[in-house]
Design brief:
The structure is a homodimer.
Chain A: H1 3-25, H2 32-39, H3 43-49, H4 53-77, H5 85-94, H6 101-117, H7 121-147, H8 157-166, H9 170-175, H10 181-195
Helix pairs in contact in A: 1-2, 1-4, 1-6, 2-3, 4-6, 5-7, 5-10, 6-7, 7-8
Chain lengths: ~200, ~200
């Protein structure tokens, strides 16, 4: 294996191990030592690839984001063409909820990442940038749907974007058995039905 | 001071110190040693009151919940009588967002608590119960408002309750500068205006 590829593959293996540890035991117990054990490498190797626990988390989060993008792409490819903008938005939104094992692991990693970012300015900047990109994508989808007449012209695209993003608040509610996955999906569908109602 | 009162007061002082440490440095750095330092007591004293870090967190969370209830009560008392159910719901909801220093500290504590609860069955049960109580309160408010004709009779109170609860998803979005506090409040107001629209 070329050295560059090898380096990348090893970092990914460690990121995947971190993902597994965070999903099963939580970020609090995800020490570099525990991740090394899970990945089957030495602590020194983990420290060779990541200077700090925060850096390891940041890389795992990037890795998880790529996985999320792939799940979104697969979800979009499964829609009947041409995809209705309502269904596109639903695929994007629901992939951020802990509804499957992969999405659940990512959601838990994300919660740990957000919490860590509150007190780490560099991480805060990175998380914030990533989320603002996500917000811009949703706003673009909503504006396009308005242009195409799927959403009533008197809706405010900024407000509608923020309300759709806030629905990611179902993630902890599902994890803590406050709202079932089915109830969360029903509520999301109701919200999207109302948004995509050109006559209102 | 009677012994019981003294015990309670000391636990509260330690919980308040934990609150300060979590707000400023994050849960990851809130060791019992750091909390003892902040509270100006010995590590042994902290360990005397709390058997574990998780128990200390659970107590701090109870303490924070009482504070939140007090803020909600003050917010409700400030409404013009008789309070409109829409405004009652708005007070309850916005007190869970990191809009003031007190609410921000509670919100951060809460995020740490939720993350910890994912991997601690006892804590999971406790957090879940508390949140389901909160959900029941919101559903009761919504059902009463429907009975009084403030909300259209064809709305599903379960779905509407879940959608209102999901708006707590603005908390991390505000913390990470994805949505401003003003934009979040504007979106919440829009959502509540649509909910409290008897003709729709």
């Amino acid at each position: 294996m070329p050295k560059q590829v090898d380096h990348r593959a090893r970092r990914e293996a460690i990121a995947r191990a971190l993902w597994t540890v965070v999903d099963a035991q939580g970020w609090a117990r995800a020490t570099m030592r525990e991740v090394a054990r899970e990945a089957g490498v030495s602590l020194g190797q983990v420290q060779h690839y990541f200077a700090s626990r925060a850096e390891m988390l940041a890389f795992a989060m990037e890795f998880a984001s790529e996985h999320t993008s792939e799940r979104v792409s697969r979800g979009l490819a499964a829609l009947d063409p041409p995809p209705h903008p309502r269904d596109v938005l639903r695929v994007v939104l629901t992939e951020f909820l802990p509804l499957g094992p992969d999405a659940r692991a990512t959601s838990r990693l994300n919660a740990a990442y957000v919490l860590e970012a509150l007190h780490d300015p560099e991480l805060h900047g990175r998380v914030s940038l990533g989320l603002r990109d996500g917000r811009a994508l949703v706003e673009r989808l909503i504006r396009e749907a308005m242009d195409q007449g799927w959403i009533a012209p008197d809706r405010d695209p900024v407000v509608e974007t923020d309300l759709v993003l806030a629905l990611t608040g179902f993630a902890p509610l599902i994890e803590l058995d406050v709202v079932s996955a089915d109830a969360a999906l029903a509520a999301i569908d109701r919200h999207l039905d109302r948004l995509f109602a050109p006559t209102h």
